[in-house]
Design brief:
heterodimer, A: 211 residues, alpha/beta, Methyltransferase, Methionine Synthase (B12-binding Domains), Chain A, domain 1, 2 domains, five-stranded parallel β-sheet, 9 helices, 58% helix, B: 349 residues, seven-stranded parallel β-sheet, two-stranded antiparallel ribbon, 9 strands, 13% strand
Amino acid sequence: MEDLKKLYDAILVGNFKAAREVTEKALAENVDPQMMVQQYMIPAMDEVGRRYEANEYFVPELLIAARAMKASLELIRPLLIARGAEPAGRVAIGTVKGDLHDIGKNLVAAMLEGAGFEVIDLGVDVTPEKFITAVNERNANLVAMSALLTTTMSSMKTIVEAFRTAGARSKVKIMIGGAPVTQKYADEIGADGYSSNANGAVALARRLTAA
Amino acid sequence: MTPRERWLALFAREKPDRIPTDYWATDEVTSRLLREFRCGTIDELYTRLHIDGVVRIDAPRTCEHHPDDPRADIWGMRRRTINYGPGAYDEFDNHPLAAATTVEQIHAYHWPSAEDHDYEAYRREIRRAPRHRLIRSGEFEPFLLYCAMRGMEQAMMDLLVEPDMVQAALDHIFQYHYNLNQRMFEIGKGIVDVVYIAEDLGGQTALLFSRAQIRRFILPNQKKMADLARSYGVHVFYHTDGAARDILPDLITVTGIEVLNPIQWRCPGMERDGLVRDFGDKVIFHGAVDNQQTLPFGSPDDVRREVLDNIAIFSGARWICAPCHNLQPVTSTENILALYNTIFEHGRL
């Protein structure tokens, strides 16, 4: 039987080829995909996040770990869906209108995916309508918004208000992040949480969806 | 003292008559200020607001486009304009090295040449340079360019998975800038005061890259460029955004930076008093007026208080008062005035 510790290690060091190979072999041996996610992938990404917070890992290490995790998850996801496995939560994530900067958003999306969330990535320059549609049509229970620019972060306020106006605010928790964004700003615009980094965003998403 | 003399006094570790100031802003802000203060030129605006602004003179390009792509710049990048309402900015629309998989492909790429510049025009321009303002020629920010050419995420992953490709590309970028800057320093000897060297090494909370990666890929070429500048008596102005505290000792001892910009003091490790304590005798601090919260979202009183705080904190060090990066259209004219009026009123030394 395939040694799944190799999957954990492949994600940790960012070796996507090894991650894919181990996953393929394990699935061919009918290993429970849910168990692979819960016992190997999520702990590996948790450790990646821990190392990032401890300044042992930096953005390049985070990116290659996320790439390895995704290589494995691409193979596993169809099986999870077929089994009707429920994700930890459904997150609609995007960089807000007027802003095209997405590396921070992509890191948060990858870390959330690695933590067992279903991620609906709306990309960049995302309008309030797109966020609301994703919540209504894809049943997202969490919205994550990013902005790099002081000139575009005001879109976050517009989006929170648009959820209120559409009567959809109570359906979702809203979390925000990005270079100029602060907890104070999150409080001001009525968002449910703020994180300064991708690892903190996972802890926040877990907290918000558990509530 | 003239604005230039104020800067040069700091480089010489002498006391200027007052704390020098500088100006970084988007085109939208500059147009607005020129209009509101009825100034015809940026020099008039500098005089009106008592800004010791720098004049940038570079050898103009003789070709604007990449040989393989007439819609792209000399590096092969196309741009598109993104409108966000009150303003606009350009984003790259393609990444010409995105598909490269080998070092050979990197070498085979059509890299720009320092020959594609008009040095006679530069000679005329530099001879006409105003003597009362600091003159900047040349720049060097290679990894930023590599990110644009390759795509940011791939470029960052390359540091770990394709180190030879990164190094090859960075060396091509270096060679172009080294040759270009050397020609300008030679022509502008005795006139050019500073060169702009940069690389964004800090994120909002920590370094973006490990120190090992920075030491391997960034510092060696940066040092060669700084050494070139020094050999012509040109001072090294250095820009890195964000929380860069952990790499500052390297920037000071290896690259030999003289001015550190922009001092984002809200980032962990970049607290002003700590920087003054640890590096105050080694570098000139440039910036330090927060452009993520205070200038865009604070009141004129908040700006005034921050400038006064800075005057006190940097009193034992050398400081050039400026916004942390480009003033954006969200920052009110009142806040910009509060910045420059406060430093003019209270910045006498």
